[in-house]
Amino acid sequence: MGDITILRAGLIGAGIGASRSPFMHMTEARALGLDLSYELFDLDHIPGGVAALPRILAEVREAGYLGVNITYPVKQAVLPLLDTVSDDARALQACNTVVFRDGASHGHNTDWFGVINGRRGYSLDRIYYRWIHTYRYGRNW
Q1: Residues 88 and 100 in one domain
Q2: Based on the domain organization, do 20 and 61 belong to the same domain?
Q3: N or C: the chain end with fewer CB closer than 10 Å?
Q4: Residue 75 belongs to what domain range?
């Protein structure tokens, strides 16, 4: 019987205890035939809080995580900790996705894509609300 590879990813942020991200990502992975562990790193419950970000990034990288999602309040603080930053993340001065590949950490921003494409089928009031909610609070809803 072949080895079972468990893929690891997670979310780093504050106040994320009720996040639906683990359920959402693990359900999608399972539908694709993948075994994914998606863990929350809630800075409200980690000693050092936001100041622990460099340590957490180093630990997940060393542990073999594929990457982590980044949310409030560290989307800007993570930028100088990364080996490379995409043009989008640099232009927006915020990173919400870190991928570990080839021994390096690569920062990206996918928020803008969600904002642009999320507006399809929504009224302008709903678009404005989503925009403000995502960028003011750094969280998707």
Answers
A1: yes
A2: yes
A3: N
A4: 6-109
* Share of the chain residues as helix, strand and coil, in percent rounded to the nearest 5: 40, 25, 35
| Residue from 14, 67, 68, 75 carrying the catalytic annotation | 75
User: What pLDDT was estimated at residue 19?
Assistant: 95
User: Residue 128, Cβ neighbours under 10 Å: how many?
Assistant: 12
Active site residue 120: no
pLDDT attached to residue 5: 86
Could you tell me if 99 and 68 lie in one domain?
A: yes
**Domain of 73: which CATH number?**
3.40.50.10860
Average pLDDT, the chain: 85
Q: pLDDT tens, 55-112?
A: 999 999 999 999 999 999 999 999 999 999 999 999 999 999 999 999 999 999 988 7
CB 76 within 8 A of CB 85: no
125 pLDDT higher than 90: no
Residue 1 lies in a domain: no
